[in-house]
Specification:
The chain has about 375 residues and is of the alpha/beta class. The protein contains 14 helices and ten strands. It binds flavin mononucleotide (FMN).
Length: about 375
Amino acid sequence: MPVKIGNFTLNSRVYVPPMAGVTDLVFRSIVRQIDPGCLMSTEMVSSRALLARPESRIMDLGETEHPIGIQIFGHEPDVMAHAAQLAEKRGADFVDINMGCPVPKITKGKDGCALMKEPELAEEIIKTVKSAVSIPVTVKFRLGWDDTSRNCVSFGEMAEGAGASMVTVHGRTRQQLYSGKADWSHIALVKKALTIPVFGNGDVFSPEAAMRMLETTNCDGVAVARGSLGNPWLIPSITRYLDEGILGDAPSTLERLITAYEHASALVEYKGLRVGINESRRHMINYTKGISGAAPFRNRLTQISSKKDAAEILAELAFMSEGGTARKNFLLAVEQNDLKYGEHPGERKHDRKSGIKTPVDVVSVAPVAVP
Ligand SMILES: Cc1cc2nc3c(=O)[nH]c(=O)nc-3n(C[C@H](O)[C@H](O)[C@H](O)COP(=O)(O)O)c2cc1C
């Protein structure tokens, strides 16, 4: 069932929303390989930081990467409008405004969820951003600041009135951070009050939960964040279950381990050896979750300093869980991958053809915080 977000039509009801430190170009390309049509967004990027570094790599988009949003945060309307213009120039299909981040480092500067306490300022930001770009403007927020101020319905109405084309609502307050259970009944109230599409968000970890979320809230789509960590296959399986009612098979352990290695390898390719390997550790740990007996291997994955270390550990894990053929097939996949990228890409940067196309001369802006 298509969802209309401003002037573009989305042929999916599944959204992988922004996750700082996760939804970079590499993660998104892995999800897209297996679910090309889902909606995705970059990590949040500071509108202030963009004043100094307009070429932030957080806004790197793949050449054919659509539909895609760039999420910005901040509280100064003009600075946010400038950031939105940069996002539009970089090719985003929509610009998402973060009004839900609960991290103190963000909220103490009036950014993220702090804007739910200042709906007038939030309205001015949305209106100013809206008037600065021609792509749709969307807003992501929570139920409210705390239990005594659950203003998500009036906040959603304000966002719609100010020109937002879609909202994503995480069913927790700022005070809750990630504790307790997401309250989908309040998301339902927002959906009922608005005419623009509403994506429900919070605690969807299976296709059945996605279906329950849509049935409970009547939302237009579902946003799945933590469930996709180390499990990009969840996204197409939700899409399939919502569209056809079919529960597909889970990926084999071998497939998970090969994807873990490919993810690490692509990160090294894109971010260089030191940063790439460092960031790949947590992803590989996520991919191995749920594999019986993998705990000691996860410990070792926290220590790796090269792709070779990763390949050795994952090959042993393939052998332990599925035997010699799985180990052999894993090592074959590693060989093919290394032929594509090279074993230590950072060292031969100019000799190879990259599989990932990014603008040259970009400056990295590290995610400010992980909400
Ligand atoms: C590691 C991590 C980073 C996140 N970064 C962002 C972010 O940059 N912007 C944002 O709006 N939400 C961010 N979130 C919140 C998620 O988008 C989502 O709202 C939240 O995790 C609840 O959804 P879930 O239960 O499906 O995980 C982040 C969440 C996680 C776990």
